[in-house]
Amino acid sequence: MRSLVIEALAQEGYHPERDATGNVITTREATGSSSMHLVLNTHIDTVPPHLPFEQHDDIVQGRGACDAKGALAALVDVFCTAPIDAGRLTLAITPDEETTQFGGEHLGETLSADGYIVGEPTGLDVCYAARGGYGGRITVHGESAHASDPTDGTNAIRGVTPVLEALDRYDTERGPGKHEALGSPTLTPTHVEAGGPLNQVPAECTVSFDRRSVPPETTQSFFGELDSHLSQSLPDSYEYEVHPAYPGSPDPDPFVTDADTQLVEELAGASGGDIRAFEATTEASYFANDAPTVVFGPGVIADADGPVAHAEREYIHRSEIAAATETIRSTVEAILS
Fold first, then answer.
1. Which of 48, 86, 278, 308 has its CA at a distance of 20 to 30 angstroms from the CA of residue 63?
2. What is the rounded CA–CA span in Å between residue 69 and residue 112?
3. What is the mean pLDDT of residues 94-117?
4. What is the pLDDT of residue 220?
5. Which pTM does this prediction carry?
6. Domain count across the chain
């Protein structure tokens, strides 16, 4: 997919580069005096299941159709065709949004702009905020013993109950509270792993969880608060460790852009969509500290019949891709003129 994008841009006369993290980056610069700089960003990676390409009239089905190939098509089109009189327009495509997000983190550290449009399936709504998202693991340590005499040890599995109860209480007792734009954070146990031979009391049990955060919470502040919370909640007979699920990769924090900025108003005026928070986490959080950042694009995460993105029925309407393209093009033209 990266090779295809580079080839398509080269055929249009541009000279895209691949940076150290695998991002594809190319820039147009107008001759006018404005220093305004807009960045168009989305990702090329997808998730299973594999779905073959199918097209039925206006509907395209296939793996990544709405997340985020529809947005990719729109942004590449806009980058190549939008009339700009002044300033710069950059197309920055990441390879790992669904996994490690090293590409997005690197762009956030190296790019500087006056606005970012991040392509994701929003149903043509203009999303100016999103919750953060990351995972963690709580490992409970007990003491192994033969199951014929379980009192000789400390069954780590029995430590799961107070862990789950502590997770349920966390946001009431320690959380940041309900956010005006993003609502309440969530803390959801998603996986439990323990045990060996059936006749052995397990000495270790791990509870994994998913965290969706809201400001002012950050990844660092959350894990510190959770560790303190668990220290006051678990019985003294258990030792435990709390650590991020993916300690070597970045985690997106929540972000909120001022809904009154020109970028939001131009996109909303052109699309006619709602102005709202995005329901999933994105790489947008890596850009939001630098400049106004908006998540926008064709397709939906879910419809009335259930999940669409990351699902076996993933689809997108070609007419919605065209509408997204026109909306972004008019926004770019308005700002870089």
1. 278
2. 25
3. 95
4. 87
5. 0.91
6. 2
